[in-house]
User: What shape does this take?
Amino acid sequence: MTKFIGTGVALITPFNADLSIDFDALERLLEYNIANGTDYFVISGTTGESVTVTPDEKKELITFISKINNGRLPLVLGIGGNNTLSVIEEIKATDFTVIDGILSVTPYYSKPTQEGIYQHFKAISEVSPKPIILYNVPGRTASNMSPETTLRLAKDFENIVAVKEAGNNVHQYLELLRSKPKDFLILSGDDDLALGVALAGGSGVISVIGQALPKEFSEMIRLGIARKAKEAYDIHFKLMPITALIFSENNPAGIKGVLSALKISKPNVRLPLVEATDTLKLNIESALKTLGKS
Assistant: This one.
């Protein structure tokens, strides 16, 4: 699926001071990314604070983003959870007219076996009208989807076309790259490992920092996919400090701190998250200054 090659960004959900959605900031963010090389958008992922966005707000986000985007970039929608039947019901109830793919996280909290994970995604595959990107993020779900399970799903279901692998595990990435079906995409969900994954044969990234620095980050990934390691690492080394900073407290507080410093959106997050500390904000401003961004 060439739509999902390159740099996708896991969009934040900008909030006003009263924690209502800041649609003006969201429009600025979308236009900024479209103008600077982002390849596709991911709506309602972890970075979008999907767990505290209401179902009605999610519909509003889809409508607004699709209107502003106006078909310019592919759109991926996050639909996942640990209640398989609820996920299926949401898929059946969703209008996918403007959506190009689904990003679906492995079941969290319940800690299913590998067979349970397989059966969960089998059930989703059977009802999904759009291509599915699996999302493995064991640091959040407390359940790692093994390479064997990912590859089994990739081979058994044509509409499971990619995995966003975010286990921060180099060996797991390499096992997936070594054994994957030809057209199955391995996408990095770890910004710090994304270049290495691209150089090793990955198809790109679904990034957090990419939405704040889309020109630099997307160029780095393009160079990585083209196996131009020297040029790509020149960019990677420059971005290392800011990439580390945004995950030093929590995500998306860190990236919202960066976007606030860039005057794109405000730093507000919804509880139980809290916004970046003053110390982190100062460190972010310093890192951006080094990059010539403030």
Q: What stands out?
A: The mean pLDDT is 97. The longest helix spans residues 229-246. The CA atoms of residues 79 and 90 lie 8 Å apart.
